[in-house]
Structures are given as C-alpha cells and as structure tokens.
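[job 4471] stage=fold_predict status=RUNNING
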Amino acid sequence: MSTESIADQIKFAYWVPNVSGGLVTSTIEQRTSWDYDYNIKLAQTAENNGFEYALSQVRYEASYGAEYQHESTSFSLALLLATQRLKVIAAVHPGLWHPAVLAKLGATADHLSKGRFAINVVSGWFKDEFTHLGEPWLEHDERYRRSGEFLEVIRKIWTEDNVDYRGDFYRIHDFTLKSKPLNTPERPNPELFQGGNSTAARSNGGRFADWYFSNGKDFDGVTEQLDDLRAVAQSHNRSVKFGLNGFIIARDTEKEARDTLREIVEKANRPAVEGFRDAVQQAGNSTGDKKGMWADSKFEDLVQYNDGFKTQLIGTPEQIAERIVAYKRLGVDLILGGFLHFQEEIEYFGEKVLPLVRELEASLTPAAVL
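[job 4471] inference complete, writing structure tokens
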C-alpha cells in the first residue's frame, strides 16, 4: 500500500433509511423513520458528525420488511439540496434504467449539488422486481456483464462528446450530453460505485468502477475480496477504492452492545427474514464458485440484510475504533454504517468513536500498514 493511501483518513457513509422497517428485520424498537423530515434532519446530523457519504437504498416493490419506499435518485437529490458537504450515492439497477437517461439526471443533480452526486450500480438480486414489471431476468453473470457496460457507457457520456458504443446490452450512436457534470481533475466524473461480492462483481469493480462496495465481512473475507479486486484493477492499469458494510452498535459497555445484538436477533421477524433469504440465496448460489452475495449467510446474518453483523463493529467506542483501523490497515477506504436508532447513534458515533479513529490513524506508519 502506498504512503499516500496511508495518509488518507478512512471515510464514513451511512445507509439512508428511505425504506420502511429500519436496517434490521426485527420487531425490536428502531427509533428511525423512512419519511422525508426525519431523513433531512439525519443528513444534516451526519455531515456535522464526520460522515462524508450517504447511500440511498433502492427497492421498487413492497416486500420483505420494506413495505414503503422512497425512490433513490429523487430522494438523494432532496438530501443533497438540504446539505452542504454530504455526498449522496443513489442506488440504481441496470435493466430498469437506461444509462443515458440516468447520465442526464445525474448531470443535473451534480450541478444542483455543486458536485456531490454519485451512483451505486446494483446488478439485481430480487427477481420479482424485474418479472413483475415484465422485464427480462438475466442469469447472474449476465447481469454483471450488463452492469459493466452500464458503467462504461455512463462514464463515457459524462466525460466525452459524440459517444459511440457497441455492446451486447447498450448501443449508443453519436450521443453528446451537455452540460456535463462538474468534472474536475480530482473527480473526473461523479463517483461510480459497484456493489457485490461475487467473482463477476470483483471483475466489474476492478475494470469499471471508482469504488467497490462489499457486504459485511470479517478480516479474512475482506482480504480475499481486496486481493481479487486489486489484481483485476492492476491488470487494467487502474486503482479502485473499497467500501465495507457494517452494522454499528456502539455502547458505553461491551455488554450493552452485545445485549442489543442479542435482542435484535431474538426479535427477528422470522417470516420476513426467511422470505428475504429465499429471494437472495438463489442469487448467491447461482454462481459457479458460490462466491455470490449471501451465498454463505446464516439466518442471524440476514437479520441485517447486508450481512452487517459479520463486520463486528459492536462494542465500546474503543473496541469499534480499533477494529475500524484494523480494517483500514487491510485496505478498506470507507465504512458504510447502519444503525438501530440513526439520529442519536450517528451523534454518539461522531462524539465518541470518530475521534478515537482519528487518533489511531495518526499513529499509523507506512511500515504498520501492509
């Protein structure tokens, strides 16, 4: 790892609760809300407590503990217009969006927010959302091939004129978008995130994305993904940043934190978790090497539907800060956090955890990070 990357501080993002049900599929109290007013206040709280990014979720159909949802791109723009520094990432599905249409929306959102718009390309795990809309459902690796073309096309449209592209999924003929986003040498296009865990996702991330988002993982899982991602990126003369999902339970004592986790799982909404598991594990297990998302997730893992418990950011502020910096040593550039009670817990994180992370980072040396 380079000295330059060591000097960079790890960044923090939070899951925008723009869908009902919170971030755990449990009947435990979650002092959070999917409504507009709550989320505007939350975005302002987050940017004032050290969070640089927010990720708006995407669901298109009422399902699996997320009965009500706000659409991700429009909701992201609302959050951008209510904040000053926060970068907001809108999750989108190729197959339900055309890249040129999204490029147009994104350029406008980027101007309105003075360069803070980003997208996360989700290749699709929920078959019903496609088939109920009469859209074709591609097999796993084909969905990622389509996402790769989607990423290529949208970057070209955002950075080039007279775009021609001949792919298997998209064909663009002499297309020019004006105005372009607020591109700069430091950020040559709105940031492109690729989500996934599978071999196909790692290949896409290394070849086409600016960032790669992983589901929750322990140290070994992160190392495996990073090794693959870096190998692909280096073979294409690129570098890609790595974001890791983690559900954060920070309490004054470790017992309080562990008791909270235990209560979340004990009060799991079993029918909703099992319905989600049935929907997603066919996606993970459909890959030849069984490395897809959720392929090895247990019931307890899926109570937080992006495997956030696996990252084990659970305990006292000191314990969580030490674990975050250990992930940084492995090469993690960003932690994407979920919380039980977003408003108060993001404030607690900013007050109690983040200063400890910065102190530990300041003590790192190049020799300590390999």
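[job 4471] summary: The chain has one domain: 3-368.
[job 4471] exit 0
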